[in-house]
Automatic annotation (TrEMBL):
Protein name: HTH cro/C1-type domain-containing protein
Boundaries of every HTH cro/C1-type domain copy: 23-77
Residues annotated as transmembrane: none
Entry superkingdom: Bacteria
Length: 85
């Protein structure tokens, strides 16, 4: 993490992975395949697969389409870190 930008890149990768995992959990809870979610969200199956694997960071409009397809609410928030003033 000594390289410039390494911490930021790690954090971005962590967030992308967590977003993908959350969508995968919702998709599986509904018993859907990646292809079914892709069709409902007007995406390709490979785009869904990359997203669920944390390989891409989607835009807010894409996240909104995925949430709508899964009949889920999309909540974006910024909150203070623990101990921040």
């Amino acid at each position: 993490m000594a390289e410039p930008g390494a911490a930021e890149a790690y954090e971005a990768a962590r967030l992308a992975f967590e977003l993908g995992a959350a969508v995968r959990e919702l998709r599986l809870a509904r018993g859907w395949s990646q292809a079914q979610l892709a069709a409902a969200a007007d995406m390709t199956q490979s785009a869904v697969a990359r997203f669920e694997a944390g390989g891409t960071t989607p835009t807010l409009p894409v996240l909104s389409r995925i949430a709508n397809a899964l009949d889920a609410d999309l909540t974006v928030r910024v909150s203070p870190r623990t101990g921040a003033a």
